[in-house]
Amino acid sequence: MEEWLKQNATTEVECLVADISGVARGKILPADKFLRVARTGGLRLPLSLFGETVNGDWPDDLIDPTEPDMLLRPVEGGLRTLPWYDYPAAQVICDCVLRDGTPVEVAPRRLLQRVCELYAERGWRPVLAPEIEFYLVKRNTDPDYPLQPPVGRSGRAEPAGQAYGIDAVNEFDPVIEDIYDYSEAQRLDIDTLTHEAGAAQFEINFRHGEPLALADQTFLFKRTVREAAKRHGMYATFMAKPIQEQPGSAMHIHQSVVDADTGQNLFADAEGRDTPLFLAHIAGLQRYLRAAMPLVAPNVNSYRRLQRHHDAPINLYWGHENRTVGLRVPSSEAEDRRLENRIPGADANPYLAFAASLVGGYLGMVDGLTPTAPTRGNAYVRPFGLPRYLPDALAALGRERRLRSVLGEDFVRTVVAVKRAEHDAYQSVISSWEREHLLLNI
Question: Is this prediction's pTM over 0.70?
């Protein structure tokens, strides 16, 4: 780290931890002090960081004034430049440990690490590739006003979505170029970009790889996109449903499992047929993903996206080349056989979304579960099979003992307390809909 900081003439280091909501928390230090505390293990943060809500409050039942601080350990090889600053600065993601060196089990990064360890114990290695959607919007300094599409290079705002439109992407070429340049500077392995169905809505795909490394990259990518947009006088948002009349934003997760020794894809046999292990993986997601919804749809706004006929799934059916189901199997050769989990929203913490998606499949494989028959035709005409609201999702998580035993009771208790507190805060706000329809009519 010392050599890297010298080579890059770095003057400042941001030490980052993703909290339960995926918000970057941490400390900023001069580079020389960062090296001192990294050597001595003296970089500390309160353990209550993981009980902080997205609106900056703490649930009363999670606060312990006598709790010890946790120590931050920079991830090995994790120093990355911060390309949007005018001076040489760096960032590094940190793991969290107690004073005796044991991991902080409620940390989202640690949860994903533990899930990957479960796979490793079986001789399996999970492989992921996220696709993440976001909107560019006009600067919105008054939260009472709805979001609007920004003005592009033509001087006009996009009136409606131009799915897969090349010229529609080029309208925002200066922002897109900065996103790619910033990502390259940070070693973020992004791949293709497309215009999605919403006005100024985009999707960027990551190349497939190891889950923990990709979660780190996705976490940093969200910061990167927001910073690039601000540079051009607009906002970028990963809200699941930011604009009322437009489609929501997803974080689709393509996942497969390979043999840890040979690298062979375990989801297809030599003839290219789906293996029993693959079907069990699908069945595990069908069985447990409903209870894991607080990890893949973590906010009150998340459930506005999951609406019938709105380019988002409403149930956990699966099928080959079927985009109306929650669990899609894309057409592929045997070595590329994978499952696309279409449930997670772009607003999800990537560490928790990846962990939830992998743990469901893992439990299905371990327990030898059997999926439903593959769905042919439109799954939107089938019954709604997902929680409709955040409290329903939290209740489902509370009832699922098998999933909780793998996630850890302390972690589940923390997530439930944080998300209930956020929902309570949301319920205290009087919306414009209430003022419009109830003020003078009832």
Answer: yes
